[in-house]
Amino acid sequence: MVKLAENKDRSEHKAIERLPLPAKVYLPLIQHLGKICVPEVKVGDTVSLGQKIGAIQANFSAPIHASISGKVLAIQDWPHPVLGRAKAIVLEGDGRDDTGIFALKSRQEVDKLTPDDIRKIVLDAGIVGMGGASFPTHIKLNPPKPVNTLIVNGAECEPYLTADSRLMVEKAEEIFKGIEVVSKCLGIKEIYVGIEDNKPEAIRIFSKFSGIKVKVLRSDYPQGGEKQLVQNILGKEIPRGKLPFDIGVLVQNVATLYAIYEAVYRSKPLIERLVTVTGSCVENPKNLLVRLGTPIKNLIEFCGLKEEPAKMIIGGPMMGIAQYTDEVPIIKSSGGLLLMNKKEAEDLEEEPCIRCAACVRGCPVGLMPCQINLASQKSLWKLAKEYGGMDCIECGICNYVCPSNRRLLQTIKRAKLESGK
Amino acid sequence: MKNNLIVSGSPHIHKKESVSRIMWTVALSTIPAGIAGVIIFGLDALWIILAATIAAVSTEWVFELITRRKVTILDGSAVITGILLAYNLPSGVPLWLPVVGAIFSIIVGKAVFGGLGQNIFNPALVGRVFLMASWPKYMTTFPKPFSYDAVTSATPLAMLKEGKILEHIPYLDLFLGNRGGCIGEVCILALLIGAAILLIKGYITWHIPVTYILTTAILTYIFGAKQFFHGDWLFHILSGGLILGAFFMATDYVATPLTIKGQVIFGIGCGLITAVIRIWGGYPEGVSYAILMMNAATPFIDRYTKNRIYGT
Prior knowledge:
The complex is a heterodimer.
Chain A: E1 17-18, E2 24-28, E3 38-39, E4 46-47, E5 52-55, E6 64-65, E7 70-80, E8 84-93, H1 107-111, H2 115-124, H3 137-140, E9 149-154, H4 163-170, H5 172-186, E10 190-196, H6 200-207, E11 213-217, H7 226-234, E12 249-253, H8 254-266, E13 272-278, E14 286-291, H9 296-303, E15 311-314, E16 321-323, E17 336-340, H10 342-345, H11 358-362, H12 369-377, H13 381-386, H14 397-401, H15 408-420
Helix pairs in contact in A: 2-5, 4-6, 5-8, 12-15
Chain B: H1 19-29, H2 31-41, H3 43-66, H4 77-87, H5 96-109, H6 123-134, H7 136-139, E1 142-143, E2 152-153, H8 156-161, H9 171-176, H10 188-201, H11 207-223, H12 233-238, H13 242-249, H14 260-280, H15 287-304
Antiparallel strand pairs in B: 1-2
Helix pairs in contact in B: 1-4, 1-10, 2-3, 2-10, 3-4, 3-5, 4-5, 4-6, 5-6, 6-15, 10-13, 11-13, 11-14, 14-15
């Protein structure tokens, strides 16, 4: 774990704003971990807001919904923030915004829902883990083993990003209702909310709810990583190669719980999400509620530019992905848009490893990144695996601390790929 | 718009740190000991330090030009090698000696392995041991402190070895450097100031120096005298090159283990070898050899001291 410069002050006190409705949205048929969806509409079809337009072909997947009402313009390859390019449904909006259809249900109605009803609602709403991994949520709500502990991930540890933090401040009641729904669905006995100490307002608000334990965590990176969160809240580790449910734990991000609330209480599928638009190039950093499929150029236009960005990152500066075009859309996992200027984005020259062991001390899972790096560069995949390359969580600390600017993470990712073959 | 976006892998931020910043800080941290050396042994010490440093940097530069490698002399590592080599020499040696030693250090100790980061042994110690084997007379003739002329004196450890310590050298004299010895090793106070800089900056951790010094202290206390548990451990810590070696040479990143576990083993190993040489060996001082031997053991230590991986 390392202490990073947070740079959250630009946007952390900016109230959530709604981005004006985009004229067009580009909805990739894959916005989740798992199998790609098949289109349920044809070019020329009229679609309504929230209509399912991409259907799942396997359980390990999540459906896609129309984030605006209008007409299907095309189904074509389009830039994708994670995969480079992927098949997407292009919708042209009709200018209407029928959010009124997502009427609030009463508490009594929600209380009548059975766990299976909840699972079905979550599946039909296309909800995935919104902290970045985009693991289909309905699968997490259907664990093969009993789960009795829920850990709510309110540790937004990436520098610059403030979307989760804002959500916790402005939508605490809703998140809490999401927690109740999940707890009921799984028969959860213990609920922890992990929040870093740099979010005092969120800590104060969540401490008022009864039935949950707020755990104040140090604002170190990667505190919000699933493995670190479990370790620092419960004092135990998830065994190698296992998932949290193997030790009876479910970890859910606050944004995911908010999406669950909206699906259960408002019958609203996942069609929008909160995105922090920030960075030194941004005139007015904001926390924006953005319809899925909106190209990032709309966000940039809305927030204004101070200077021409040299690097556009979807996600945070540690694990986010640099984009090659501003046509790329916001998808379910996109929690931030970070625009860096030329000086910040400068590529530093790689120098020889001096074995200073900064990466070894920094690695939150106990690896020796410099050794895996050497093995990987020599294509010694077996050796890389022996050094634990497969256990890498790709947090990027090794690269960050390396005085020789070595591309440790890239070579470890390569080793993971090769030794997984 | 935006036709020249930079698209590179994560992470996209980097700690403000570089190899040259580390190396120059280490070089800086050796300055107090150098100043002390010049005060104690006179300007001869300064000329030796300069000769070794200039020779080390020039050798690296020439070698890189000849072999058409990237010139790296500004990264500060050759400067450190030169300085540390000089600190391991008596102040009375002729000026060609540090030059020859520095050339040997850089070429045989560093360049032939592939340069910075690739060397198996601490380059300065490689040079020192080479000079010791080749010109032992020069290497063991120590001018008397504050005499600034040709009067020589034995080092405290040599006196101890020969059983010549008739009266006790005050610990304060040892601490401040009023004794025979190598240029950079005698003033413990100055060395500790430099070490504090490195510890505060986080460029070294306490694990190797502390385990090294502690092991030496314990073993010399137990076995350092005719009777068990009567050894003068403080004398052993303060004399010879232990402090210089423990903080500035046994902590050389390149040739020491990566994990804390490994570094503790390294430190204990250095202490053990140093004590064995000093107590039972035929040689008064053992720091250089101890560190070099443990350098050789480093890949082996690394292999068996991996950190525990999360979830295993």
